[in-house]
Amino acid sequence: MALALNGAFLALSMIPLAIDFFPKPYKATTTVRIGVGLAQESDLGNGTLGGNVPNIALFDGNGNQLGTKHGKKTINGGEFKDIVVKHRVHADNAPAEYISITSGGTDQICIAYLAITMASGDKNQFYGDVGKQCGGKWYPSNLLVETNDDPEFKPSCIWLGSPDPGTADVFAQGFSFHVPDFGSNQVRAMGYQEDPATMCESKPRFHLWGSDLTSEKQCIPVFNPPLAYQSDGSDPVDTSLILVNGSVTCSPGPGVPMHPQTNAPMNASQILQTESNGAKRKSKIRRSNEACGCSSIVISDHNAHSAQEVCDSPTSMGPDFVSTNEGLFCDMCTHTIYNVCTSNATKGCFDLSSQTLKPGPILQHRGLNTSSIALHQPGFVPAKSYDKVIHWT
Ligand SMILES: *[C@@H]1O[C@H](CO)[C@@H](O)[C@H](O)[C@H]1NC(C)=O
Ligand SMILES: *[C@@H]1O[C@H](CO)[C@@H](O)[C@H](O)[C@H]1NC(C)=O
Ligand SMILES: *[C@@H]1O[C@H](CO)[C@@H](O)[C@H](O)[C@H]1NC(C)=O
Ligand SMILES: *[C@@H]1O[C@H](CO)[C@@H](O)[C@H](O)[C@H]1NC(C)=O
Ligand SMILES: *[C@@H]1O[C@H](CO)[C@@H](O)[C@H](O)[C@H]1NC(C)=O
After folding, report:
1. Do 168 and 76 lie in a common domain?
2. What domain of life does the UniProt record list for this protein's source (predicted)?
């Protein structure tokens, strides 16, 4: 089931963005446009709205850093931001072959796409769907990207954030990827579809990092020797060349704890200090709780969005989700699917006009396949209402 869905999305995730969609090129500068599907809104009253802009690092094919940019300020859900990374060497127009993106703070963002314009003017894209296929926490997005092939393409987004204090790493804190491997090559897309491990279990190609990669100053593993593609751009036949851990060729590498303020490696005594100094973290409702806090809901009219898919996925995360097209509602707290009310059924379903879940007995499920049916309170739908309704048209 999961693999069938993966297949459908993989084919899509290689479609090229339209040229006009990219930022303009500048000398010795790489511009990364980040599209954010959703962002955690701070609950500190009027404080910042939106998630933290992430950190970015660029590497050449040998794993040497070309340039870095520390994330500043915030970005709102449904928006994009252009992050301009100057290369260290002023005359250096080398393409970024590898990119790492790490969380810029405690306010999570869900990244739907990256549109990258190299110093040379070359362009590449990366979609959140890759992270979703590879087990990252994801959510649908309402960001329509301009592609050459599919006018309706709205990539899924992948959550990036700091871990919940005192709990396991709920969120990836960063990801890194080999840029040319996600260009618009249909042969390669087919290869990933046939053997998803070649996409998800090749550390230099794509990797979701936990607390071992938290800073743009950290180096990432690269293919060493560089991958030799076949003439049509597909992977070498010998997959042992792909399913590798790669080599980290500069320092510090992943796993070296970094000081949150100075962005320098920390020694053991500093690590102890930071851990005991919990006051540095803003106290706020964490997103993982928020999913169960009934505070917000997304109602989507987009044809390709599926509440069934969101509910069936153990890795989806975000507000409760309604697909008006399917007539289904997903309670993200329990991953339970319910019907949207109709003129005949007005209880035990989600009512679009009042935007509330109406309590009542469960009459009939349209999506009977799922493991997600009302395990929690068999046969009865609870009442639920929302502070914030996000309507995706
Ligand atoms: C919060 O923001 C609103 C709208 O910008 C403003 O009217 C209000 O005064 C602000 N409240 C505080 C406590 O800053
Ligand atoms: C990659 O690293 C892991 C953990 O150190 C190790 O178990 C695994 O064998 C390595 N894989 C390869 C292909 O070297
Ligand atoms: C660790 O860092 C602290 C504070 O910067 C410094 O005083 C100490 O000498 C360092 N210890 C080692 C072993 O490097
Ligand atoms: C409501 O019920 C009637 C009679 O059973 C049926 O003909 C009609 O299609 C139903 N309408 C909806 C929206 O389900
Ligand atoms: C239910 O599962 C079957 C087989 O696993 C599949 O063919 C069908 O498309 C699924 N239906 C839905 C609504 O997911």
Report:
1. yes
2. Eukaryota
User: Do 338 and 228 reside in the same domain of the chain?
Assistant: no
Tokens of 361: 């007995």
Is position 284 within any domain?
no
> Do 244 and 315 fall into the same domain?
no
195: exposed, middle or buried (C-beta count within 10 Å: 0-12, 13-18, 19+)?
Answer: middle
Give CA–CA dist 72/233, Å, rounded. Answer: 37
Asked if 110 contacts 77 with a C-beta cutoff of 8 angstroms, the reply is: yes
Query: What is the total count of domains within the chain?
Result: 2
Q: Same domain, yes or no, for 256 and 378?
A: no
Nearest ligand (C-alpha, residue 201): 2
Which ligand minimizes its atom distance to the CA of 273? 3
Euclidean distance between CA atoms 133 and 138, whole angstroms: 9
Q: Residue 14's pLDDT band (boundaries 50, 70, 90)?
A: low
Spatial distance between the Cα atoms of 253 and 107, rounded to a whole number of angstroms? 25
Q: Is the CB of 245 under 6 A from ligand 2?
A: yes
Which pTM does this prediction carry? 0.84
SS3 assignment for 18-42: CHHHCCCCECCEEEEEEEEEEECCC
Record the tokens describing residue 92, joined without a space.
Answer: 């250096």
Full domain range(s) for residue 320: 292-392
49 pLDDT tier (thresholds 50, 70, 90): low
